Amino acid sequence: MRNYVRKTERVKAPSDVIDRAVAMVLDDGESCSSVAILFDIPRRSLTRYVEKKKKSSLEEQNMPNSVSPTHHGYSSVRQVFNKEDETVLADTFTVQQIFTLDCPQLMLESWLI
User: Fold this and answer.
1) N or C: lower Cβ tally within 10 Å for the chain?
2) pLDDT tens profile 76-88
3) Same structural domain for residues 104 and 68?
4) Are the beta carbons of 39 and 61 closer than 8 angstroms?
5) 30 phi and psi, to 5 degrees?
């Protein structure tokens, strides 16, 4: 295959359209087939988005502080800390920086590089 030409497009529907379609399927009880035709989204892709939304809502019920992915497409969201943990970590680093600037002789050896 010397000059490959891709025959399909990836994620041609915007994420807000996908969100509205998923909401119609889950909230209004419409079928995936009819909503896929209405929004011009492949039926299997819409089914996959609906399954992801159901799975993430179940995980949120079990672990309310977890971060749920809201990105559609081929790359996924990879967030290590939730917002609360991130602020605690940032405050800790700020305190360590202030402490080492004020009292360098009391700095722990583990902080040295």
Assistant:
1) C
2) 566 777 888 888 8
3) no
4) no
5) -75, 160
28 is written with which tokens? 């209004």
30 neighbors 37 (Cβ within 8 angstroms): no
Question: Which single residue is written with the structure tokens 């583990």?
Answer: 110
Mean pLDDT computed over 1-6: 86
Structure tokens at 30: 């419409």
**67 with 104, same domain?**
no
Residue 20 has pLDDT above 90, yes or no: yes
Global confidence as pTM: 0.51
Give the separation between CA 100 and CA 107, rounded to whole angstroms: 6
Torsion of CA 92, 93, 96, 97, to 10 degrees: -150
- Residue 6 in domain: no
Neighbouring C-beta atoms of residue 9, cutoff 10 Å: 7
- Residue 56: pLDDT band by 50, 70, 90 thresholds? confident
Boundaries of domain holding 94: 80-113
